[in-house]
Amino acid sequence: MAIQLTKVIEAEIDAAVRAGAYRSANEVIREGLGLIKARAQLRKAIADGAAQLDRGEVVTRSEMLATFRKLRAARRKAR
User: Fold this and answer.
1) How far is the C-alpha of 20 from the C-alpha of 14, rounded, in Å?
2) Given phi > 0 = left and psi -120 to 50 = alpha, else beta, which region is 20?
C-alpha cells in the first residue's frame, strides 16, 4: 500500500523518530493506528456505560469501593 503524507505530517513523523520516541516511521504510524483503535474502544465503553445508566444498572460508590478493596486484598494475598 502506498500513501501520500502532507509535508507537515511527514515532518512530525520524522521529528518523532529523530527525537528517539520511535525507531521508525512505521512505528509512529502503528502507534497512531493503535490510538485510533483505543479511542474507538473507549467510545464504545462510554456508550455501553450510558446505556447501562439508562437501564438503571447503577453501582453505588460504596459498592464500587468495596469491590475494589476485595480485589486488591485478593491480589495481595496471591503474591
Assistant:
1) 10
2) left
C-alpha distances (whole Å) from 9 to each of 36, 38, 52, 53, 57 are: 16, 21, 40, 40, 44
Q: Tell me the pLDDT tens digit for each residue of 26-77.
A: 999 999 999 999 999 999 999 999 999 999 999 999 999 999 999 999 999 9
Please give the Cα distance from 65 to 38 (Å, whole number).
26
Report, in angstroms and rounded to the nearest whole number, the Rg of the chain calculated over CA atoms: 21
Grid cell at residue 15: 521529528
Question: The whole model's pTM is what?
Answer: 0.66
Distance between CA 74 and CA 58 in Å, rounded? 24
